[in-house]
Amino acid sequence: MNALDRKKKLEESRKEMTGLEQLQAIIGGGVQPPIGQTLEFNLAEISFGKAVFTGNPNGKHLNPLGTVHGGYAATLLDSALGCAIHTVLEPGERYTTVDLNVKYLRAMLPGMGKVTATAEVVHKGRKIATSEARLVGEDGKLYATGNTTCAIY
């Protein structure tokens, strides 16, 4: 079976799975999405209404000021926020981000160690879902917070 056939088969099986089951397949040894490979973070934990991502910001993620680019935190938070919502989807439901809000509280530095983004669903209706997240360092400090609204279809 070629790659295109495998992709089609995976898409067909996803239509029958809940969002939580789809993400459990990723954690259970499935292929991590390419953005996680690019920015060196991964989905570490999921449960119904909750997603946890971890990453290790390093020298590849710096802005011209020498701190970790804000886009790293935003992408990590966006991934956790979206996946938290993904866990509450019924078979056949999909979502897309309507808005993403990030509040930066302190700069991240290369070599600071692991950061963890934990997101939880606040509300899921028929057409709209929201979630909130916190980005915390190994030092226990809060580096950023975020929230999102997603359209369900």
Oligomer: single chain
Overall number of strands: 6
Uncertain stretches of 5 or more adjacent residues: none
Mean pLDDT equals: 92
Helix content: 25-40%
Rg, Cα atoms, Å: 16 Å
Order of strands across the main sheet: 1-2-4-5-6-3
Q: Provide the β-strand percentage band.
A: 35-45%
Number of helices: 4
Structural shape: globular
What's the order of the H and E elements?
HHHEEHEEEE
What characterizes the major β-sheet? Answer: 6 strands, antiparallel
Q: State the end-to-end CA separation.
A: 31 Å
The structure class reads: alpha+beta
Considering the chains and any ligands shown, give keywords for the structure.
4 helices, alpha+beta
Write up this protein.
The protein has 153 residues and is an alpha+beta fold. Helix content is 29%, strand content 35%. It has a 6-stranded antiparallel beta sheet with strand order 1-2-4-5-6-3. The model has no long low-confidence stretch (mean pLDDT 92).
Topology overview:
Layout: H1 3-14, H2 19-27, H3 34-39, E1 41-47, E2 50-55, H4 70-86, E3 95-104, E4 115-124, E5 128-137, E6 142-152
Antiparallel strand pairs: 1-2, 2-4, 3-6, 4-5, 5-6
Write a concise synopsis of the structure shown.
With 153 residues, this protein is of the alpha+beta class. It is built from four helices and six strands. Strands 1-2-4-5-6-3 form a six-stranded antiparallel sheet.
